[in-house]
Amino acid sequence: MKIEKLVRDNIKKLKPYSSARDEYKEFKKDMIFLDANENPFINGVNRYPDPQQTNVKIELSKLKSVPVDQILLGNGSDEVLDLIFRAFCEPKQDNVITLPPTYGMYNVLANINNVEERTVQLTPCFEPNIAQILKAIDENSKILFLCSPNNPTGNSFSNEAVEVLLSSFPGLVVIDEAYIDFSSKKSWLKRLNEFPNLIITQTLSKAYGLAGIRLGICYASTEIISILNKIKPPYNVNELTQQKAVRRLLTQQKVQEEIDILLEERKKLLLRLNTVSYIEKIYPTDANFILVKVDDAVKRYNQLLEKGIVIRNRTTQPLCENTLRLTVGTKNENKVLIKALRDIAK
Ligand SMILES: *Cc1c(COP(=O)(O)O)cnc(C)c1O
Hints:
The chain is α/β, with parallel strands linked by helices. The protein has two domains: 3-250, 3-Layer(aba) Sandwich (Aspartate Aminotransferase, domain 2); 253-343, Aspartate Aminotransferase, domain 1. The chain contains 13 helices and eleven strands. Helix 4 (54-64) packs parallel to helix 10 (239-249) and helix 11 (252-273) packs parallel to helix 13 (331-343). It is globular, with a radius of gyration of 22 Å. Bound molecules: pyridoxal-5'-phosphate.
Protein backbone atom coordinates (compact mmCIF):
# COMPACT_ATOMS: atom_id res chain seq x y z
CA MET A 1 0.00 0.00 0.00
CA LYS A 2 1.23 3.47 -0.90
CA ILE A 3 0.60 5.72 2.13
CA GLU A 4 1.72 8.70 0.04
CA LYS A 5 -1.34 8.19 -2.19
CA LEU A 6 -3.69 8.52 0.78
CA VAL A 7 -2.35 11.90 1.91
CA ARG A 8 -4.25 15.09 0.99
CA ASP A 9 -2.51 17.14 -1.69
CA ASN A 10 -2.24 20.29 0.45
CA ILE A 11 -0.58 18.29 3.23
CA LYS A 12 1.86 16.71 0.80
CA LYS A 13 2.95 20.18 -0.31
CA LEU A 14 3.02 21.62 3.19
CA LYS A 15 6.24 22.91 4.66
CA PRO A 16 5.83 22.54 8.42
CA TYR A 17 6.03 25.58 10.68
CA SER A 18 9.36 25.60 12.42
CA SER A 19 9.13 26.82 15.99
CA ALA A 20 12.02 28.38 17.90
CA ARG A 21 12.41 25.19 19.90
CA ASP A 22 12.50 23.14 16.69
CA GLU A 23 15.38 25.16 15.32
CA TYR A 24 17.49 24.94 18.44
CA LYS A 25 16.71 21.98 20.64
CA GLU A 26 19.74 21.25 22.80
CA PHE A 27 19.26 22.45 26.33
CA LYS A 28 22.79 22.90 27.58
CA LYS A 29 22.96 24.37 31.05
CA ASP A 30 25.21 27.30 30.14
CA MET A 31 23.29 28.44 27.06
CA ILE A 32 21.37 31.71 26.98
CA PHE A 33 17.98 31.39 25.25
CA LEU A 34 16.86 34.63 23.63
CA ASP A 35 15.09 33.03 20.68
CA ALA A 36 11.47 32.45 21.69
CA ASN A 37 10.41 35.68 23.42
CA GLU A 38 9.87 33.82 26.66
CA ASN A 39 10.01 35.46 30.09
CA PRO A 40 13.48 34.53 31.43
CA PHE A 41 12.53 34.36 35.12
CA ILE A 42 12.46 30.72 36.12
CA ASN A 43 9.21 29.34 37.53
CA GLY A 44 9.28 25.80 36.17
CA VAL A 45 7.16 26.49 33.10
CA ASN A 46 8.51 29.77 31.70
CA ARG A 47 10.04 27.95 28.71
CA TYR A 48 8.09 26.41 25.83
CA PRO A 49 7.77 22.63 26.16
CA ASP A 50 9.70 20.14 24.03
CA PRO A 51 7.68 20.01 20.77
CA GLN A 52 8.73 16.38 20.23
CA GLN A 53 8.08 15.29 23.86
CA THR A 54 11.24 13.21 23.73
CA ASN A 55 11.33 12.21 27.39
CA VAL A 56 7.77 10.87 27.30
CA LYS A 57 8.42 9.01 24.06
CA ILE A 58 11.61 7.41 25.42
CA GLU A 59 9.65 5.92 28.33
CA LEU A 60 6.82 4.74 26.05
CA SER A 61 9.36 3.30 23.64
CA LYS A 62 10.98 1.22 26.41
CA LEU A 63 7.62 0.13 27.76
CA LYS A 64 6.01 -0.83 24.46
CA SER A 65 9.09 -1.80 22.43
CA VAL A 66 8.24 0.65 19.67
CA PRO A 67 10.92 3.01 18.28
CA VAL A 68 10.56 6.70 19.19
CA ASP A 69 10.06 7.68 15.54
CA GLN A 70 6.94 5.49 15.39
CA ILE A 71 5.24 7.44 18.19
CA LEU A 72 3.24 10.68 18.03
CA LEU A 73 1.67 12.33 21.08
CA GLY A 74 -1.35 14.60 21.26
CA ASN A 75 -3.56 16.59 23.60
CA GLY A 76 -5.63 13.45 24.29
CA SER A 77 -6.36 10.78 21.68
CA ASP A 78 -9.02 13.13 20.43
CA GLU A 79 -6.33 15.45 19.04
CA VAL A 80 -4.48 12.52 17.52
CA LEU A 81 -7.66 11.32 15.77
CA ASP A 82 -8.31 14.85 14.49
CA LEU A 83 -4.77 15.03 13.05
CA ILE A 84 -5.39 11.77 11.20
CA PHE A 85 -8.57 13.21 9.66
CA ARG A 86 -6.83 16.40 8.65
CA ALA A 87 -3.84 14.67 7.08
CA PHE A 88 -5.73 12.07 5.05
CA CYS A 89 -9.36 13.10 4.45
CA GLU A 90 -10.23 15.66 1.78
CA PRO A 91 -13.40 17.44 2.96
CA LYS A 92 -16.53 16.84 0.84
CA GLN A 93 -14.70 14.17 -1.13
CA ASP A 94 -13.31 11.39 1.07
CA ASN A 95 -15.16 9.17 3.51
CA VAL A 96 -14.43 7.19 6.67
CA ILE A 97 -16.04 3.99 7.93
CA THR A 98 -17.23 3.63 11.52
CA LEU A 99 -18.94 0.69 13.18
CA PRO A 100 -21.70 1.80 15.56
CA PRO A 101 -22.42 1.42 18.37
CA THR A 102 -19.01 2.94 19.05
CA TYR A 103 -17.09 5.92 20.41
CA GLY A 104 -18.89 9.15 19.48
CA MET A 105 -15.79 11.21 18.68
CA TYR A 106 -15.27 9.59 15.25
CA ASN A 107 -18.63 11.02 14.18
CA VAL A 108 -17.94 14.42 15.73
CA LEU A 109 -14.53 14.66 14.05
CA ALA A 110 -15.95 13.56 10.69
CA ASN A 111 -18.54 16.34 10.95
CA ILE A 112 -16.03 18.98 12.04
CA ASN A 113 -13.77 18.05 9.15
CA ASN A 114 -16.70 17.89 6.70
CA VAL A 115 -15.87 14.30 5.84
CA GLU A 116 -18.58 11.76 5.05
CA GLU A 117 -19.05 9.07 7.69
CA ARG A 118 -20.29 5.71 6.41
CA THR A 119 -21.65 3.63 9.23
CA VAL A 120 -21.77 -0.16 9.18
CA GLN A 121 -23.48 -1.53 12.27
CA LEU A 122 -21.75 -4.20 14.29
CA THR A 123 -23.36 -7.65 14.20
CA PRO A 124 -25.77 -8.50 17.06
CA CYS A 125 -22.81 -9.96 18.99
CA PHE A 126 -20.93 -6.67 18.44
CA GLU A 127 -18.38 -7.93 15.90
CA PRO A 128 -17.44 -6.06 12.69
CA ASN A 129 -19.68 -7.03 9.78
CA ILE A 130 -16.92 -7.69 7.27
CA ALA A 131 -19.12 -8.30 4.22
CA GLN A 132 -21.04 -5.07 4.79
CA ILE A 133 -17.84 -3.08 5.44
CA LEU A 134 -16.32 -4.28 2.17
CA LYS A 135 -19.55 -3.33 0.42
CA ALA A 136 -19.51 0.19 1.91
CA ILE A 137 -16.02 1.17 0.77
CA ASP A 138 -14.99 2.91 -2.43
CA GLU A 139 -11.85 4.60 -3.75
CA ASN A 140 -12.42 7.56 -1.41
CA SER A 141 -12.58 5.48 1.77
CA LYS A 142 -9.56 6.68 3.71
CA ILE A 143 -9.99 5.47 7.27
CA LEU A 144 -11.67 2.56 9.03
CA PHE A 145 -12.11 3.03 12.78
CA LEU A 146 -11.97 -0.12 14.90
CA CYS A 147 -12.47 0.51 18.59
CA SER A 148 -11.29 -2.57 20.45
CA PRO A 149 -12.18 -3.04 23.27
CA ASN A 150 -15.19 -1.17 21.96
CA ASN A 151 -16.93 1.66 23.78
CA PRO A 152 -19.79 1.34 24.80
CA THR A 153 -20.19 -2.41 24.25
CA GLY A 154 -17.04 -3.41 26.16
CA ASN A 155 -15.99 -6.34 23.98
CA SER A 156 -12.82 -6.74 21.94
CA PHE A 157 -13.17 -7.66 18.28
CA SER A 158 -11.99 -11.09 17.19
CA ASN A 159 -8.39 -11.22 15.95
CA GLU A 160 -9.55 -12.91 12.76
CA ALA A 161 -11.97 -10.11 11.87
CA VAL A 162 -9.39 -7.40 12.56
CA GLU A 163 -6.76 -9.19 10.51
CA VAL A 164 -9.09 -9.62 7.53
CA LEU A 165 -9.91 -5.90 7.67
CA LEU A 166 -6.27 -4.88 8.00
CA SER A 167 -5.43 -6.89 4.89
CA SER A 168 -8.42 -5.92 2.78
CA PHE A 169 -9.22 -2.30 3.67
CA PRO A 170 -7.70 -0.01 1.00
CA GLY A 171 -7.04 2.89 3.40
CA LEU A 172 -5.78 3.36 6.94
CA VAL A 173 -7.11 1.21 9.77
CA VAL A 174 -7.15 2.98 13.14
CA ILE A 175 -7.41 0.59 16.08
CA ASP A 176 -8.45 2.62 19.11
CA GLU A 177 -7.00 0.79 22.11
CA ALA A 178 -8.09 3.21 24.83
CA TYR A 179 -9.07 0.26 27.05
CA ILE A 180 -6.35 -2.20 26.07
CA ASP A 181 -4.82 -2.33 29.57
CA PHE A 182 -8.03 -3.91 30.91
CA SER A 183 -8.26 -6.44 28.10
CA SER A 184 -7.48 -10.14 28.11
CA LYS A 185 -6.48 -9.76 24.45
CA LYS A 186 -3.04 -8.60 23.32
CA SER A 187 -2.48 -5.18 21.83
CA TRP A 188 -1.98 -5.01 18.06
CA LEU A 189 1.26 -3.11 18.75
CA LYS A 190 3.33 -6.28 18.42
CA ARG A 191 2.16 -6.53 14.83
CA LEU A 192 2.48 -2.85 13.93
CA ASN A 193 5.22 -3.40 11.37
CA GLU A 194 3.30 -6.14 9.55
CA PHE A 195 0.62 -3.71 8.37
CA PRO A 196 1.74 -0.46 6.72
CA ASN A 197 -1.81 0.92 6.97
CA LEU A 198 -2.17 0.30 10.72
CA ILE A 199 -2.47 3.14 13.22
CA ILE A 200 -2.92 2.28 16.90
CA THR A 201 -4.11 4.88 19.38
CA GLN A 202 -3.82 4.59 23.14
CA THR A 203 -4.26 7.06 25.97
CA LEU A 204 -3.21 7.82 29.52
CA SER A 205 -6.85 8.77 30.30
CA LYS A 206 -8.15 5.36 31.38
CA ALA A 207 -5.94 2.68 32.98
CA TYR A 208 -3.13 5.17 33.64
CA GLY A 209 -5.50 7.39 35.59
CA LEU A 210 -4.46 10.68 33.96
CA ALA A 211 -7.57 11.87 32.11
CA GLY A 212 -6.92 15.36 33.46
CA ILE A 213 -3.54 15.88 31.82
CA ARG A 214 -4.75 14.99 28.28
CA LEU A 215 -2.17 12.71 26.73
CA GLY A 216 -3.05 10.60 23.73
CA ILE A 217 -0.64 8.32 21.92
CA CYS A 218 -0.44 7.22 18.32
CA TYR A 219 1.75 4.37 17.03
CA ALA A 220 2.25 3.83 13.30
CA SER A 221 4.91 3.46 10.60
CA THR A 222 7.62 6.12 10.50
CA GLU A 223 6.07 7.34 7.25
CA ILE A 224 2.63 7.93 8.80
CA ILE A 225 4.14 9.47 11.94
CA SER A 226 6.22 11.92 9.93
CA ILE A 227 3.13 13.02 7.97
CA LEU A 228 1.21 13.64 11.21
CA ASN A 229 4.22 15.42 12.71
CA LYS A 230 4.12 17.86 9.80
CA ILE A 231 0.68 19.15 10.77
CA LYS A 232 0.64 18.88 14.56
CA PRO A 233 0.68 22.18 16.47
CA PRO A 234 4.28 22.62 17.67
CA TYR A 235 3.55 22.79 21.40
CA ASN A 236 0.49 20.53 21.54
CA VAL A 237 1.53 18.72 24.74
CA ASN A 238 2.27 21.09 27.59
CA GLU A 239 5.22 20.90 29.99
CA LEU A 240 3.21 19.86 33.07
CA THR A 241 1.61 17.04 31.12
CA GLN A 242 4.97 15.81 29.87
CA GLN A 243 6.45 15.80 33.37
CA LYS A 244 3.46 14.07 34.94
CA ALA A 245 3.30 11.48 32.15
CA VAL A 246 6.98 10.54 32.55
CA ARG A 247 6.57 10.12 36.31
CA ARG A 248 3.51 7.93 35.89
CA LEU A 249 5.12 5.80 33.18
CA LEU A 250 8.01 5.18 35.57
CA THR A 251 5.65 3.79 38.23
CA GLN A 252 4.39 0.76 36.31
CA GLN A 253 3.94 -1.31 39.44
CA LYS A 254 1.46 1.16 40.89
CA VAL A 255 -0.42 1.38 37.59
CA GLN A 256 -0.62 -2.42 37.38
CA GLU A 257 -1.84 -2.66 40.97
CA GLU A 258 -4.69 -0.29 40.19
CA ILE A 259 -5.60 -2.22 37.04
CA ASP A 260 -5.61 -5.48 39.02
CA ILE A 261 -7.93 -3.98 41.63
CA LEU A 262 -10.30 -2.70 38.93
CA LEU A 263 -10.33 -6.10 37.20
CA GLU A 264 -11.13 -7.78 40.52
CA GLU A 265 -13.88 -5.22 41.15
CA ARG A 266 -15.22 -5.79 37.64
CA LYS A 267 -15.49 -9.51 38.36
CA LYS A 268 -17.40 -8.86 41.59
CA LEU A 269 -19.69 -6.33 39.91
CA LEU A 270 -20.53 -8.80 37.13
CA LEU A 271 -21.60 -11.37 39.72
CA ARG A 272 -23.66 -8.90 41.73
CA LEU A 273 -25.36 -7.32 38.72
CA ASN A 274 -26.73 -10.80 38.06
CA THR A 275 -28.81 -10.50 41.21
CA VAL A 276 -30.61 -7.30 40.13
CA SER A 277 -34.10 -8.28 38.98
CA TYR A 278 -34.62 -5.79 36.13
CA ILE A 279 -31.18 -6.29 34.55
CA GLU A 280 -32.02 -8.43 31.55
CA LYS A 281 -28.59 -8.81 30.06
CA ILE A 282 -25.00 -8.21 31.09
CA TYR A 283 -22.70 -7.96 28.11
CA PRO A 284 -19.22 -9.51 28.25
CA THR A 285 -16.58 -6.87 28.94
CA ASP A 286 -12.89 -6.47 28.23
CA ALA A 287 -12.79 -2.89 29.56
CA ASN A 288 -13.26 -0.94 32.83
CA PHE A 289 -16.99 -0.60 32.27
CA ILE A 290 -19.99 -2.89 31.89
CA LEU A 291 -22.91 -2.52 29.51
CA VAL A 292 -26.20 -3.85 30.85
CA LYS A 293 -29.68 -4.09 29.33
CA VAL A 294 -32.50 -3.13 31.68
CA ASP A 295 -36.30 -2.93 31.53
CA ASP A 296 -36.38 0.87 31.13
CA ALA A 297 -33.06 2.69 30.77
CA VAL A 298 -34.41 6.24 31.16
CA LYS A 299 -36.30 5.34 34.33
CA ARG A 300 -33.36 3.48 35.90
CA TYR A 301 -30.93 6.24 34.91
CA ASN A 302 -33.08 8.87 36.62
CA GLN A 303 -33.58 6.75 39.73
CA LEU A 304 -29.83 6.33 40.13
CA LEU A 305 -29.29 10.03 39.53
CA GLU A 306 -31.68 10.80 42.39
CA LYS A 307 -29.47 8.66 44.58
CA GLY A 308 -26.42 10.67 43.48
CA ILE A 309 -24.99 8.09 41.09
CA VAL A 310 -24.19 9.15 37.54
CA ILE A 311 -23.97 6.47 34.87
CA ARG A 312 -24.25 6.64 31.10
CA ASN A 313 -27.52 5.97 29.30
CA ARG A 314 -26.72 4.43 25.90
CA THR A 315 -30.30 3.65 24.88
CA THR A 316 -30.25 5.82 21.74
CA GLN A 317 -27.26 3.99 20.25
CA PRO A 318 -27.97 1.35 17.61
CA LEU A 319 -28.25 -2.18 19.08
CA CYS A 320 -28.21 -0.61 22.55
CA GLU A 321 -31.89 -0.09 23.33
CA ASN A 322 -32.42 0.17 27.10
CA THR A 323 -28.75 -0.20 27.88
CA LEU A 324 -26.75 1.55 30.58
CA ARG A 325 -22.97 1.80 30.78
CA LEU A 326 -21.45 1.48 34.23
CA THR A 327 -17.84 2.42 34.90
CA VAL A 328 -16.05 0.23 37.45
CA GLY A 329 -15.32 2.43 40.46
CA THR A 330 -13.61 1.91 43.80
CA LYS A 331 -14.67 -1.00 46.00
CA ASN A 332 -16.87 1.33 48.03
CA GLU A 333 -18.39 3.09 45.02
CA ASN A 334 -19.32 -0.26 43.51
CA LYS A 335 -20.90 -1.37 46.78
CA VAL A 336 -23.01 1.81 46.87
CA LEU A 337 -23.95 1.28 43.20
CA ILE A 338 -25.13 -2.29 43.78
CA LYS A 339 -27.13 -1.28 46.84
CA ALA A 340 -28.80 1.52 44.87
CA LEU A 341 -29.53 -0.78 41.93
CA ARG A 342 -31.23 -3.22 44.31
CA ASP A 343 -33.10 -0.52 46.24
CA ILE A 344 -34.72 0.96 43.16
CA ALA A 345 -36.06 -2.48 42.20
CA LYS A 346 -38.50 -2.33 45.11
C1 LIG B 1 -12.05 7.47 26.63
C2 LIG B 1 -11.74 7.12 25.22
C3 LIG B 1 -10.67 7.71 24.57
C4 LIG B 1 -9.78 8.67 25.30
O1 LIG B 1 -9.65 9.86 24.70
P1 LIG B 1 -8.62 10.92 25.31
O2 LIG B 1 -8.85 12.07 24.42
O3 LIG B 1 -7.25 10.31 25.17
O4 LIG B 1 -8.98 11.15 26.74
C5 LIG B 1 -10.38 7.33 23.28
N1 LIG B 1 -11.11 6.39 22.66
C6 LIG B 1 -12.15 5.79 23.27
C7 LIG B 1 -12.88 4.74 22.57
C8 LIG B 1 -12.49 6.16 24.56
O5 LIG B 1 -13.55 5.58 25.15
